[in-house]
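[Q] Does anyone have a clean structure-token version of this?
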Amino acid sequence: MAATRSTPAGSLRGMTAEHAVLGVLASTENGTGHGYDLARSFAPGSPLGNVLHLESGMIYHHVKKMEKLGWLRLISDGGRRPGRRTVAITDEGRSELRRWLAEPVQHTREVRLDFLVKLYLALRLEESTAKRLVTEQRVRLEDVREGLLHAPGQAQAVAPGFATLVRDLRAMQTEAANSWLAS
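[A] Here you go.
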């Protein structure tokens, strides 16, 4: 059995692929799958693959990492198929997935990947989670937008007005993302 290690939630940022794999496994009837099943979920042209494309080699890399975290466990196939690794999501993995799905993303730039993966998985797993996620994401994006519009001015010695252009672009992107969520 893989040894688990305690990881604070903040240290798990940037693990969208791992959480996506957990979500794909959680959405199966028995919480299991093998590399080929997972690879199909992340293939170009698939709904999830259009947001996050993962090659088989990367999937196995993420699986090994999640085994060490205690989120997945390897299931023996009884020797019927050499080289075929079947994995199962653990209770700890399900708990981590629920925690991750409940958190809106913190920055507008994360909507394109992280939020879309969360939304896809939440819609597959539990519609009420998806609705709550969208509502909380809209609140978070409004906070981001307000913070951008009311941020103190930055030094503009090198390129006068550039900081304002960047701030305005970020505020408009955040407003557009929030409008999209409202539709």
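[Q] Thanks! Anything notable?
[A] DSSP finds seven helices and three strands in the chain.
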